[in-house]
Design brief:
alpha+beta; 298 residues; 2 domains; Cytidine Deaminase, domain 2; 4-stranded mixed beta sheet; binds zinc ion; single chain
Length: 298
Amino acid sequence: MRTALTDALTQLPDALQRVVSDWITNTHFGATFSPEQVAQMEAESDLSGAALRLTLLPIAAAYAVTPISTFNVGAIVRGEDGTLYLGANIEFTGVQLGQTIHAEQCAIAHAWTKGATRLTDITINYSPCGHCRQFMNELNGAESLTIQLPKTDPKPLHAYLPDSFGPADLGVESRLLTDAPHQLPTDDIDIPLLKAAADAANRSHAPYSGNYSGVAVETSDGAVFSGMYAENAAFNPSLPPLQVALIATNMAGYHWDDIRSVALAEMTNSTVSHLTDTQATLDAMDPDIPFVYSTLST
Ligand SMILES: [Zn+2]
C-alpha cells in the first residue's frame, strides 16, 4: 500500500479509521466506496452525507502524483446510485503542463471508466479552477451538479460558472458520461490491447472533432485499464484518452513503472490526433514502454 494512503488513514477520526482500514489496505481496493460501504461508514462514524465525504478527502488526495507542484488535491464524486469515486491531481515531468490531470477530472473520469453515467455531486478540498468548472459543464446532469468545499455551503456548478459556455452553444446535445456507444467495428482487431483501446474509442465523447479515440494500458501483472477521450466545448479542457487510462491505472493502485504496454486507437483522417502527445508523454514516463497504434474507420 502507498505510504500516502497509510498517512491519510491516520488523519481520519478513530471510528472511521476502524471501518475503512481493512478496505483500504486490501490490494483490491479500487479507490471506490460502494453505497453499502458508505452506509456502514455513516452508521459507525456519526458522519453522514457531505460531512463524511469531506472527512474522506485525505484518502482521495493520497492518490495524487505531483512531482512538479507537490500540491495534492483530492476530489470525490458521487454517482446516482450513491457510489463514491475518488480522484486526485496527476502531473507528468518532461512534458508540457497541458498534460496535467486535475483532481476533479480524475474523479469524474474514474467514475466514467467504472460505468457511472450521471453524477450528483463533487467534494473537493480546494475551490475548483476555471478549467475544471468548464470541464464539469460538459457533464451529463451538469445543471444539477452540486459542489461541496470545506467550510462552504454546497452550491450548484452554475453558481461557480455563471453565464457559461457549453455544448449547446455549439449545437451539441450529447454530454460527457452519457452512455451512447459509437458503432466502430472492432471485432477484427487481433491484438487484444489494441481491441481494448478501440472498444474505449467506442465509448469516447468527441462531438466536436469526431475523433473517437481510446487508450488501453496493460500492467506487468496482466491487468488492462481503458481510457476514453473526453472532449470539451471549450476544447482546451478536453481530457485525452491516455490521461483517462492512466487515471484508471493510478486509482487501481498501480504506479507508472508497473506499465508493460500501451495501445492507442483513433479515427482515420480526423481533424485532430492524439498520436504525438501520447508518444511524448509515454516517452517522458519511460521510453521503453511498447506502444501500438491503429486508426479506425466506420
Ligand atoms: Zn482544476
